[in-house]
């Protein structure tokens, strides 16, 4: 149970307080209701680039990190396709510093050209490090546009191409800030060794004077239901073949979500899961195999992914994955197996509640989805799922004409392993 | 009402007291030490069984890690599948982890299921057999994983670096795919028997440690788990650093180069260690560090760069690591050299040093998030042979570190020309 109090400032900023006196620390988490899905198709990667720029100084405070580090605090942020989330942890005695810093950058940024120039380079290096210079790093750059044809989920948060990041101008940065970074589009959670009254007072003092701004009204293209089998094959300098089958599923808020999530657990959570036991251990078709969902707010993805053992034909590996899906479509999950994944969900929730930062982030995200209190009923929703629900979802999702298959083939032409070891021995 | 002055930072307070929770200790009749941290709170537990690794054998380099990884793969009475089913059914998590000095088994469980999950652990640490079929699967899958990792420049750079500093020891291990083929069931069983005995085990329990829970633990692990006639040989051979200092692996078509630069170093047991942590933080130990400020935030050469000090039982290392644009590899190395040498030449300005000191104390306080973190701090001390005085000395050193002292340390320990330098990518 994650307890909290909540109030809204006149300018529309929603504030949640999670008191936890067992820690000497405090957390201030701000979620902005903007993600890569809100980007212009010709300026992708912008939400994430913007997140970097949020650390480049604000209107009254030239340096964001220094003053925070000086009071013993740390911070970070992440951008997803749906949201941008910033967080600070610091000794609770210095919580006001967090209010000072966060309110100033919600008020206005410094919009420094030097900052834009440098962060453009940093993000380009991030693009290379995570997506281009890693084996299989570009999988999501290829899989997303296969699954999505209309919705902005068709590009990854890093963006479609480095070009879009290179092209970002300071005017675009200003416009993006005006559109998305204001009290109405934000949810703040303050947690840890704090009191609600104290947070109210500090929130009024530092965030109260910020103009409400314009409410951003999201109006995104809806992804049409898929009615054709999609397939793409790529060849790259990787050591092993890799296989992805993605299915469109409903968004995070749909009532089917919990059944579909448990279905991915049945397939692939832990060493007792179906895919691991049957396809890795018994049939020895894959060296690793996973099933997971993207938890997107709009239409999501259910992904099956595996690296077949060398010598196993892609077609056989693919058939084995489909066979597991067919079993889910035809046979109800046995009661014990369903109980197992439910127990796991319950225990993950209990362990997650030990982290103050996790609690703060979760409260913000659930508030965004409608009501922070739903966080405390999430386990109940999982417990209510029946075997019939799972079978129904399996039949809905796992159709050939709802599938997008990406086959990532190893180009064996060039063997680079040898040179590494010879260098090592010199 | 006064006008809000947003240019003025609010008043702040230093971190005065950091209180660490100390464990209760009992020793089981079979010699296994048990340290427990009781938090009350949520009804859950984390229990760790930590074993010293056996002496490294160059001819069979993977025995320590393979024995550990395969602990969940079957016993005289239970199959791998049954172990997994049982643990998962109770919503528990069973992890095996290998590090240079230790191998461990960790159980995360809700307290209400402790009675059902503990027997599984007892079974795997007393009866593991390493079935041939599971071994074959393990070998093949690990070889495949290694092939993928070897395509990652940072992974390759780390291996070359460790090998250069530590030679053919457990700290320098850089397995090749074919090394997995030399693993045999017989060797694993012998290794298991010698290593996983109670006198070579430390249990660390954290969470809601009730009397009942402790009684259950004691009952389960005090009987039916006996020591072998021979004690575990846990001595490690001495390190033999390479005489070669520069290692370049060219990767055609690389967009980035992985860089790792550093040297064998003092570890936690050395009196200079806490002050060196301060110096390291200034150089590359936090987001505002000199390396980050220069090479990421000013030049934009990289997504991230940092430095650190690794502390192990018989070794330590100081290292700087980054992945930088392939076209700026040389410039990045030059800038790293410049930053290291600046700290040897000039005093750290007072403002910067006081910021770093506050940051480190806040960070220590923040690292004590819950009872698990307190247990982790204890392990740092216990396995280095230190007691809780260490954290008193650490906080005292952080609070009192002077620019003069840090400059002297930089000159005493850092010689960039003599550092090991590894580049994988383009140079």
Automatic annotation (TrEMBL), chain A:
So which domain of life are we looking at?
Answer: Bacteria
User: Does the keyword Protease belong to this entry?
Assistant: yes
Positions of the Peptidase M16 C-terminal domain:
170-344
Q: What is this protein called?
A: Insulinase family protein
InterPro entries documented for this protein: Metalloenz_LuxS/M16, Pept_M16_N, Peptidase_M16, Peptidase_M16_C
Q: Which family does it belong to?
A: Belongs to the peptidase M16 family.
Pfam families xref list: Peptidase_M16, Peptidase_M16_C
What GO biological process, any one, is recorded here?
Answer: proteolysis
One example of the protein's molecular function in GO is: metal ion binding
PANTHER family, alphabetically?
Answer: NARDILYSIN (PTHR43690), PROTEIN YHJJ (PTHR43690:SF17)
Q: Could you read off the lineage of the organism from its UniProt record?
A: Bacteria, Pseudomonadati, Bacteroidota, Sphingobacteriia, Sphingobacteriales
The UniProt keyword set, sorted, is: Hydrolase, Metalloprotease, Protease, Zinc
Q: Is Zinc among this UniProt entry's keywords?
A: yes
Domain Peptidase M16 N-terminal stretches = 14-129
Automatic annotation (TrEMBL), chain B:
Q: Where is the Peptidase M16 C-terminal domain?
A: 182-358
Q: Extract the SUPFAM superfamilies matched here.
A: LuxS/MPP-like metallohydrolase
Q: What does the record list as coiled-coil region(s)?
A: none
Which InterPro entries does the protein's record reference?
A: Metalloenz_LuxS/M16, MPP/UQCRC_Complex, Peptidase_M16_C
Q: Name one GO molecular function term.
A: metal ion binding
For this entry, the protein name equals Insulinase family protein
Q: Which Pfam families match?
A: Peptidase_M16_C (PF05193)
Q: Which domain of life is it from?
A: Bacteria
